[in-house]
Amino acid sequence: MGASFLIVLREGLEAALIVAIILAYLAKTNNVKQFKSVWMGLAGAVVVSILTGFIIFVTAGELPERGEEIFEGIAMLTAVGVLTWMIFWMKKVSRQIKKELEEKVDKALEVGSSLAIATIVFIPVVREGWETALFLFSITRSATVLSSLVGGILGLAGAILLGYSFYRGTKRLNLRAFFNITSILLIFFAAGLLAHGIHELQEVSIVPSIVEHVWDINYILDETSVFGEFFKALFGYNGNPSLVEVLAYVIYLLGAMVVYFGPGFKIKASAPDKTSPQNT
Predict the structure, then answer these.
(1) Count of other CB atoms within 10 angstroms of residue 273
(2) Which of the residues 119, 161, 186, 223 could staple to 228 if both were Cys, CB 3.0 to 4.6 A apart?
(3) What is the pTM (predicted TM-score) of this model?
């Protein structure tokens, strides 16, 4: 539940902030009539995202056992790549995303195109939706569908609440601190997802184990226990990992952390942004 909550909260908030910024700018420029275009773009993105998730889950369920394991392994490795790109992309563009969105809205308003406004919303939100569908599928391979669903619903509710509060100016959210903290947690999640994906491919003998079990500490924390399942879903815990899994986990984790905390990163987050979209 923790992993799905984190993923949906992060992805959902990114989408919610995009919508909030566009709505606030339309209100600021006296173009409230274009709100319906924003809602149309948002609705379209939600429908397409749900269909994408449905197709992914149905496709996996229809495959034979070996094919399903291969599909799951590839899906997890793909999710790692997408998640890694998303983490570093957001770090790079977070400071100028508001300006870029407003410039796109200005161009759409100049030509008077409601479709253009809807598209500005649709494209980034559907991207977040596709990513979320892929991540949730990967999470359900190491957690129950019910716990993933509950965590996802709670994460979505939190994202909507924070997005609305940000739009209304009632929430002084330190976005830089929020994204830094969640990015670090997601790097741990991605490392675990990478190891889990490799494990699935080892099950079908596509990736060698080299050493089948480097250690076995299931007698201390069983990966099938409540806490074991939690750490497995959130951080990729495995009580008896292979050597390749351990190496992949450590190399990815150290590499991602080095890049993330590279030049330009400030360990001390800036003061909360007291400027809401309504008054910028």
Answers:
(1) 13
(2) 223
(3) 0.81
